[in-house]
Amino acid sequence: MIYDLKKRISIVIPAYNEEKNISFLIEQLGETLSNTNYEYEVIFVDDGSRDNTLNEIKFNAAMHSNVYYVELSKNFGKDHALKAGIGLAKGDAVITMDADMQHPPEMILTMLRFWEDDYDIVYTYRKNANPHAKKYQKATSKMFYKGINMLSDIQLENGTADFRLMDAKVVKQLKAIDEYEIFLRGIIKWTGFKQIGLPYTPSKRHTGEVSYSFFNLVKLAVSSIMAFSARPLYVVTGIGLFVSALAILYIPYVLISYFAGYAVSGWASIMATIAFFGGLQLLVLGIIGVYVGKIFMQSKHRPNYIIRSTNFVAVNNDLIRI
């Protein structure tokens, strides 16, 4: 296949406490792409790392003319870090991937082939459960995708990753999206375009440990589901109607017991009923409260991220390469 020499690829990599992976990843990307006819740039986004990650990125940026860095003012989260890098990418295609080497760089060549075959989005998903993950991580990941597919308006393959290629026209649409809580895996699926998914087996982390905790995964799941659907409101409405129907069916029993003269008031049954309905009301109010909270935060129009430093320069209020 003959490639257009003018095509440029932007690789966006969010990094949080990945100091020992930066140089190795750049080396692997070089080995993968050096024999192709593509020009490529690597944009690292330091998401408030607490170790020496930023200095490692700056060192490599000084050594390699195609390596750039963006330092965020604090830890804004992986999706916001990706949004920051995507916002600065100028390539004909943009590839996003993790910094821990679990996303095999050699798969980029396969992505590029599908892109050349006119696919706008080439995304990846784990073919099987991550062989390097712990048991609870595998279980929570599976529940995460089942919950999203059941309660939201999008469908994601189990193990859908942030390792993907997007054409420039897709990136243009992503840059225009302004949401306070952004879930890129869902938004990219929602955009449509011509997409194809590639199965892959995650590699072992080069160094370090997974930073996502169980609590963070639950928070991400709740936020992602509510970002794409009002279905949870319909679900609790259905539960409320079901419980109300049961309560109506209970009325004949109460009347018969009263007129038959054997109605006995019981503390346990009363308390159980109060606790049940009280819990149901709190559940409904909690879900409504989350939606109202999201509206409140979105209405503030705060930026998704704040850039503290970068080796891009500002010209006419726009960041460009130096």
UniProtKB/TrEMBL annotation:
The keyword Transport does not apply. The keyword Transmembrane helix applies. Keywords: Cell membrane, Glycosyltransferase, Lipopolysaccharide biosynthesis, Membrane, Transferase, Transmembrane, Transmembrane helix. The chain crosses the membrane at residues 233-255, 267-292. Gene3D superfamilies: Spore Coat Polysaccharide Biosynthesis Protein SpsA, Chain A. Residues 10-174 form the Glycosyltransferase 2-like domain. This is Glycosyltransferase family 2 protein.
